[in-house]
Specification:
By secondary structure, the protein is of the alpha+beta class. It has one helix at residues 2-52; strands spanning 72-75, 83-99, 111-115, 133-136, 140-148, 151-156, 182-195, 198-203, 211-217, 219-227, 231-239, 256-257, 260-261, 271-279. Helices cover 18% and strands 36% of the residues.
Length: 283
């Protein structure tokens, strides 16, 4: 009985040890998959914003979007993650219907009537403070000085400077519907930064109510480089959330990413370095 008991304990111990090893391996692979997925999506989000940067702004004019007067503002750090602010018409905010009198828009018009986006009843994305900069069809840049919110009739600081047709009432309800006129985009600033280990996108950084959105966690570094005057190289260094005991000391980051030197580590974190070059069409 003692022999049988000892053999049973050895077999049980071997099975338990194998189970623990497999569980650790599964957990490590699960973390690696999560790291690759979230960091890759983050890279795509930044790349998409870079491609739209500058869209809807005056090609040879001045603007001030919540304190930013350049299409792209890059803060280059040699001992910390970089920060970049992009300005452009990133999202549709409304549909252009007519001028303030319900007629086709003329170059001298400053009053416009808009339709809210989607099923909304108000112009949620347009106001006279931090969301006052708009673009009509990517052609005309304007600053809203009155209206917005529940007031679908807005006034621009300057005349539109272009002729736009009256909307077409495709569904015959005699109401200016979203999608039946020219798109109106909200021009805003998107700042990408790393705080702690979170990659954040901050909208309207200098506005009264900035929106902070966490794009990804466990991001150790974010680096940018401007090359050829119209191309930006984006670098993201991600790590797993928890260390892998079987990977101790083997997950060192690259020695250098752009102009930042990264120290070697002795932890068990697995890391992934992504790099992509993005052409900025409207820079």
């Amino acid at each position: 009985m003692l022999v049988v008991l000892v053999i049973s304990m050895l077999i049980t111990g071997a099975i338990y040890s194998s189970y623990i090893s497999q569980q650790r391996s599964f957990t490590a692979q699960d973390q690696v998959a999560e790291m690759n997925s979230t960091s890759r999506i983050s890279l795509s989000i930044i790349a998409n914003d870079l491609r739209e940067t500058g869209f809807g702004l005056l090609e040879n004019g001045s603007f001030n979007i919540n304190g930013f007067t350049q299409v792209m503002t890059l803060t280059d750090n040699t001992n910390a993650p970089d920060q970049i602010t992009l300005v452009g018409a990133f999202r549709k905010a409304a549909t252009l219907c007519s001028n303030g009198s319900g007629q086709a828009i003329q170059p001298e018009d400053t009053f416009l009537i808009l339709a809210p986006p989607g099923d909304s009843k108000v112009l949620d994305d347009i106001n006279t403070t931090d969301k006052r900069n708009i673009s009509i069809a990517g052609i005309t840049y304007g600053v809203v000085v009155s209206g917005g919110g529940s007031q679908l009739r807005i006034q621009l600081q300057d005349p539109v400077g272009n002729t736009f047709p009256l909307y077409t009432d495709l569904n015959g309800n005699n109401v200016c519907d979203d999608g039946e006129g020219l798109p109106v985009y909200l021009i805003e600033d998107h700042t990408y930064q790393v705080v702690g280990n979170e990659l954040q996108r901050v909208k309207r950084l200098n506005g009264p109510t900035p929106e902070v959105e966490t794009i990804a966690q466990n991001i150790e570094d974010l680096q940018f480089a401007l090359i050829n005057n119209n191309t930006v190289r984006v670098n993201i260094l991600a790590s797993t959330e928890r260390p892998d005991p079987n990977f101790q000391g083997m997950g060192n980051p690259p020695g250098t990413i752009e102009n930042r030197n990264l120290p070697a580590t002795n932890d068990g974190l697995r890391r992934r370095w992504w790099q992509m070059e993005v052409s900025v069409r409207n820079l």
